[in-house]
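Re-run with default settings, no changes from the original entry. Doing this only to confirm the output is reproducible before filing.
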Amino acid sequence: MSDSLTELNNKIREASSWVSLLRDEMGRVIVGQRYMIDRMIVGLLANGHILLEGVPGLAKTLTVKTLAATIQADFRRIQFTPDLLPADIIGTLIYNQREGSFEVKKGPVFAHIVLADEINRSPAKVQSALLEAMQEKQVTIADQTYPLPSPFIVFATQNPVDQEGTYPLPEAQVDRFLMKLNIDYPDMEQEKQILRAMGKSQPNTEVRAVINPDTILVSRKLLDEMYMDEKICDYIVKIVFATRKPSDFGLTMDNYIEFGASPRATIALAMASRAWAFLQGRGYVTPQDVKSIAMDVLRHRMVVTYEAEAENVKSESIITKILNTVPVP
């Protein structure tokens, strides 16, 4: 390892010391769910939004709220319902009778961390109200454009079980999420800990702030300095290309894929891999970093065919085969 890379490695190790503090503080309230917590931190570092999918009661909302508290961030929770309007999210103009003019009343989207709870409970016109905010980090009300706070990240939740009265997110919006996380049940020991911690009339969910939003912004700049070898870049591109034409890599699955991952997936996988390496306290990206985060970056960016659905072939199984097939540098 060269002197410059050693220096960078030490710099990243020192700068990432807050990650363990954040995990420990969140662990006072959230039992288990290391997978979800770590990838939420990746989202913060990589400046990307996260879609959380899981059955009710898996602490998705509580985890996002706890994360916001530990980084001393402005937090807003929006409960998506069928009667919600776009103005309820981004804000609107209100007539001031005293002044005789219209003034802007900003919506709950003006926060560092926004929780879009059960996002698929609202129709497309409401979901699309978040599109400009998520992509451009700004909101347009009437003829004025307003920048959102920095950092700004949307955590959206949806329930995969109850599909009655829901509105599936359009592919264009789903692609704007850096990662889609499938949240699973805790194991028996973790559930016992949950019972002891939360089985009270007033469970303790208070945490202290261990960092502030500026720490996140400083860490983001360090991601740009991280070393990513040309072979790692090629590896990322090959993985994404394999989701479009798996036959080019010796996989007979073209008939299962309607659309592969977009170039946005390539960028997202590179950013998320850097952030994952940062969590490990390293100043360089390894192939294992890419493989560790690839499933969460790609699973929602692939559209499978009717033939795949008929044979119960999920995007996850296709991605797993791709990761096992594309040569590791």
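The chain has two domains: 18-215, 226-325. The mean pLDDT is 86.
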